[in-house]
Amino acid sequence: MEEPVTAGRPRGSTRTTTAILRSALATAILLATTQIPARAEQPTPGLGQSIAADQPLATGRAELSAGHVDIGPRYVDNQWTLLIHDGSQARPVWRNPDETVLRVSDAALQTVPDDPAYAFLGVDAGTKVYVVPQVQNPDVVWLGWNTQDPRVMQSINRGVTLTLLGVRGPGTLTTYLQSGNFAAPQPLWRSTEPKAQPFWAEVNTHTHANWVFTAPGVYLIAVQVSADLIGGETVTATRTLRFAVGDATSADEAHAATADIPVPAGQASPAGARAEAGEPAGDSTTLLLAALAAIAALLATGLVLLLLRGRGAKRQAERERLASLSGGDR
Length: 330
What we know:
Largest sheet: 6 strands, mixed
Strand order of the largest sheet: 1-5-16-15-9-12
Helix content: 25-40%
Radius of gyration: 29 Å
Strand content: 25-35%
Low-confidence stretches: 1-11, 23-38, 265-271, 280-289
Mean pLDDT: 80
Number of strands: 16
Number of helices: 5
């Protein structure tokens, strides 16, 4: 049976307006629930440091089990790369990730809190995990990142993107930031995620985070560092970090371990990863605001159309009623 048409609600126009409103609402919900990738551009408080241009590149195998260590971009023989900055000794040096094992000893064991805020770890409360902490523990290697090499600071355009490409190990890895004991944790990297996970780090940044390993053993972590240079060129490099988690894990095994960690499907180019990782200029935040403004305009237009067509239909119905009354008087 054909649907009746009532005065003041023309069927076609009402359906069109309703479709517009539903489409706009669906788009708004999608944008509101889309996760914005993490940003880690702010340095950890109290971590002021500077890096001299002449700090050497050490050669040979090394095992770092305590003290201050960062990963960061640097030029070696005019090639952009990612190295380990070893500040655990009196004279800091840079190290090749292929020759360096980061030891996470049993002193790093901590208990997962009984707190829903830590559900992102994917581990039951009360479970023991290995934690490289954001705040230094003198008995555990203290791992962060920096963008402070002098040549890097002179050449990059605002900052770099650090991207987790994949992890091979007996458990999972989660890296997160937390500003004080009462702030919510901010996950940066989770090995359980199947996609590349970028975050943005400003130039001259020095930051430390929490690195959580759920089981002892050897972990290989593929990390990419990308940047746009002031001269317009884009640079990128991928290196593998080696971890020996637990006192019983062999450093020799960690040195010898190999893993083909594929680049996740659909990984963005370095320039595209900047926006995806939350770069402040011309970034996803601007696009999100523009999209929300467009949706608001669309909603307003739909409501105006609905009101105008409703009024027009009422006027038409009133004219028809008056014409009917006039015809009946003749």
